[in-house]
Amino acid sequence: MASVINTDFPRPNANQLAAFKTASTALIYRATGQRGALHSAIKPLRSGFRLLGAAFTAAGFPGDNLTGHAAITLAQPGDILVYSVDGFTQGASFGDMMATLAANRRLGGILIDGAIRDAALLRTWDLPLFTRGISLKSRGEKAQLGPLATPLTVAGVEIAPGDLIVGDDDGVIAIPYALLDDTIARLRQLQDEKARLLQRFTSSANPEDWQALKTWE
Question: What's the chain look like in SS3?
Answer without folding.
Answer: CCCCCCCCCCCCCHHHHHHCCCCCHHHHHHHCCCCCECCCCCEECCCCCCEEEEEEEEECECCECHHHHHHHHHCCCCCEEEEEEEEEEEEEEECHHHHHHHHHCCCCEEEEEEEECCHHHHCCCCCCEEEEEECCCCCCECCCCCCECCCEEECCEEECCCCEEEEECCEEEEECHHHHHHHHHHHHHHHHHHHHHHHHHHHCCCHHHHHHHHHHC
